[in-house]
Amino acid sequence: MVRVAAFRARALAFFPQVSAGLPTGTPDLEFLAHTGKHLEDDMVHWAESMSEEWRNSKDDLPASTENASDSDACGGNRNSYTSHGHASLWIRQRALRLIINSIFIKFISVRMQTSTDQTHLLWKQNRMRGNLETISQELCADMLYFFKGPPSSDGEIAIPDPRTSVTAEGDSVILPSLASMLAWPLAIAVSTENVPELQRKWLQGRLGTVANSLGDAVLHDVRRRGAFVF
Questions:
Q1: Is residue 47 part of a domain?
Q2: ω into residue 23 within 30 of 0, thus cis?
Q3: Cβ proximity of 155 and 59 under 8 Å
Q4: Which of 10, 51, 119, 141 would give a disulfide with 74, using CB separation of 3.0 to 4.6 Å?
Q5: What pLDDT score does 125 carry?
Q6: Measured in whole angstroms, how far is the alpha carbon of residue 58 from the centre of its chain?
Q7: Residue 102 and residue 97: Cα distance in Å, rounded?
């Protein structure tokens, strides 16, 4: 997390110079791109090296009108974990990968201003956008474990759950102890550029629920404005 924060801080200092037309130098761009690639590779390696206890299990979301928005946002899947602690670690990892891939897309846009190899750069940019969509879908699928609980023995989502409840109107209510695990990743996800709009809006709804649970006016502001400073 510290490495990603430092990477983001350097990128935030770099991009305004580009926008203002100030000289930045190719080495700065190459260094940041190199750093970001190493961070993304390390994140992927971390995920691949986790023991079975820490991995999620995937289930298809039941096909129904009630679950239509969940299914669309989550890519038709829900993720289950050994515990909420296990799930929260993966959720943070996904939030960090959103930051890295979003910044990469901006790097590529800067490169495209001067490069003659537009085809290759466009391919890389589309690949990063694909990464963001996949990560966002996985993040949404993770959220269902908190908001609707693990699947029951017959494969349906177990509602009501002792840790969460759902009102008659369908708005989830989550306990503060669980909401506190989701506040930072959700704030990051709804604030990150290039996150697909479908997932962003779905996650904004969950952030609103978390903000209500924690009584946090700052999170409500993040949900409305889509901006979070860390």
A1: yes
A2: no
A3: yes
A4: 141
A5: 87
A6: 18
A7: 8
> In this structure, what is the dihedral angle of CA atoms 72, 132, 42, 93, given to the nearest 10 degrees?
-50
What's the number of domains the chain is made of? Answer: 1
Q: What pLDDT shows up at residue 209?
A: 95
Question: How far is the C-alpha of 137 from the C-alpha of 158, rounded, in Å?
Answer: 21
Question: Does a structural domain hold residue 86?
Answer: yes
Which residues span the domain enclosing 215? 2-225
Q: Looking at the domain assignment, is residue 205 inside a domain?
A: yes
pLDDT above 50: residue 158: no
Share of the chain above pLDDT 90, in %: 43
Q: What is the pLDDT of residue 169?
A: 35
Q: For residue 207, is it within any domain?
A: yes
Surface-to-core class of residue 190, CB atoms within 10 Å of its CB (0-12 exposed, 13-18 middle, 19+ buried): buried
pLDDT at 159: 44
Q: 3-state SS string over the chain?
A: CHHHHHHHHHHHHHHHHHHCCCCCCHHHHHHHHHHHHHHHHHHHHHHHCCCHHHCCEEEECCCCCCCHHHHHHCCCEEEECCCHHHHHHHHHHHHHHHHHHHHHHHHHHHHHCCCCCHHHHHHHHHHHHHHHHHHHHHHHHHHHHHHCCCECCCCCECCCECCEEECCCCCEEECHHHHHHHHHHHHHHHHCCCCCHHHHHHHHHHHHHHHHHHCCHHHHHHHHHCCCCC
Q: Supply 131's token pair.
A: 């990464």
What is the Rg, in whole angstroms, of the alpha carbon atoms belonging to the chain?
A: 19
Contact 108, 42 (CB under 8 A): no
